[in-house]
Amino acid sequence: MESAFELETRAVFDRYQRQQENDDHIFDRLASLIEEDYFGLPAGSFRGLDILDAGCGSNANASYAFLEKGARSVTSLELGSEWMDCASKRLGRFGARSALVAGSVLDLPFDDGSFDFVHCAGVLPHTSEPRKGFEELTRVTRPDGKLFITVMGTGNGVVYRCINHLRELYKHDLQFRHSVDNLNAASARQAIDWLLDTKDREEAEYLSKENDFFRSLFDEDFFVTIRDRFQAPTYHDFDFTEIQIRDWFAECGFANIRRISRYTRAFHNLRRFLAPMYRHYDHPLARFWFGDGCIQMIGERPRQ
Ligand SMILES: C[S@@+](CC[C@H](N)C(=O)[O-])C[C@H]1O[C@@H](n2cnc3c(N)ncnc32)[C@H](O)[C@@H]1O
């Protein structure tokens, strides 16, 4: 039985994740994040593996990608079971290779060493005990298997300092909360039209393709991300560090621990211009805006 906090977390995420499932562009962009090269593996490496996607979200986009890439079985785990109708829409066609399981990453309902590859993206900071969740993930990873997690790094960059501050405002300021809750591509279009009409009246000489380009920077995918940053309940501010996560892997006896990153393609919005900083998280510009950034780390459980 989920706690009140977990129920709220699930309800908030379920709304975005259903929207993402309904939009082929967004779903395909998310599924395209799973590629062997990113994990430092040769092409075809997921073929024949038993994979766990822990905290898979209602649309289970990563599970879908692993199945497409030939995993022998993918177990998709989320809190409760209300999400399963959504996940089944895309996973149903994989038959018995896909299993949907209700459960918590804090108490995984699997035997030790059940999976060759464990994937847990963006989940641990949304739990009451991230370290306990991490240990559970290591427990179910097979000897010789790999564990991959992502957590948002510490908020010492400008973007996350602002987000952490605005998250507090979101909790207490009804007007700000209302604005965020109603932020979407349609409501933004009105604001953008007003902005551009006003600009065009003052500076008609610049009327050209620049307005179309400006509009193109703000699509629904962008606003789903913005709402997520303010609405998603977290037990912890964005305050994890790379060293801390490396230590977690090492303390659990994992080897070949690597922080990885990728060039995130296929954004149709402003984030296209942020993608170089997601890839090169150590560049001074990336550090300035994103601090420790999104920590994506993989390690291997040695053979006993
Ligand atoms: C940021 S979303 C990521 C979803 C998915 N991994 C993805 O990358 O699209 C975080 C997810 O963690 C799930 N979650 C939160 N606490 C959890 C727990 N204790 N056990 C399993 N999942 C949990 C939430 O319901 C939510 O779907």
UniProtKB/TrEMBL annotation:
Domain Methyltransferase type residue range list: 52-149
Statement: the UniProt record of this protein carries the keyword Methyltransferase: yes
GO biological process, alphabetically ordered: methylation
The keyword Methyltransferase is assigned to this record: yes
Alphabetical list of InterPro entries matching this protein: Methyltransf_11, SAM-dependent_MTases_sf
Keywords: Methyltransferase, Plasmid, Transferase
Molecular function GO terms recorded: S-adenosylmethionine-dependent methyltransferase activity
Official protein name in the record: Class I SAM-dependent methyltransferase
Organism encoding this protein: Rhizobium jaguaris
